[in-house]
Predict the 3D structure of the following.
Amino acid sequence: MNLQLHNVITDVTGVTGMAILRDIVAGHYRGELVFALRQSIEIYDVYQDKIRACDEQVEALIRALEAQCPTPDRELSPRPRTKRPRKNEPHFDIRSPLFSLSGGVDLTEVPGIGPYGALQLISEIGFDMSRWPSPGHFASWLTLSPHNKISGGKLLGSATQPSSNRAAKTLRLAVMSFTRSDHALGAFYRRLAGRIGKPKAITATVRKLAILIYCMLRDRSSYREQPAAVYDERLRKRVLHGLRKRAQSLGFDLVQIDTGLVLE
């Protein structure tokens, strides 16, 4: 029908299908094409109604669970305004009930985890971390631990197993936003990506993020963000410490070029 909808409609949200048909398809178009367009818009409206009904049911269940939980010792900190919610993301308040259900843990403080991402993650792993004896067991359940292939006492491979774990998928989507983030997790991902490639770096960072979330929920602790510069400085000191020990074992010292001083 050659309708340039991107020039006519800027935001379909809140506009009914019949209004679109009335305002846009008011030209000389073939009847079967208008019929097909009407069918598509009506189906779209039905899906939106179903999504809203689902959101209302989810909100009601979360509120019912929240009413049974004690009030957390700490208060939920205000969240700064971020980008607009994604399409089909629930528009009710998700942070407050999840904060109460988790005993005062705000997963949205973690980089890459928004309210909807926190809801998706909690719906898969729950709040009780005692089901996994250690962070390693939790990472293994998420299929983020190496699967060692050993034959004749030799390690043939240690790649992670393919998996459709939905919690791991949510964490992977979070890590994919770390490319230019100014925090320690972003610096960790970028360092590994330059050394072992992006796919392996994503898996390693997802494992680190999963262990962080496990410890937060287990210990009922808050997330403390570390700037990327602090992470880089700590990494530099660790590398220098290793180099200095290596040089001393060979009978040498590390000397700073610009000052000529031996590094202690």
About this structure: Residues 31-67 form the longest helix (37 residues). Residues 50 and 56 are 10 Å apart (CA to CA). The chain has a mean pLDDT of 84.
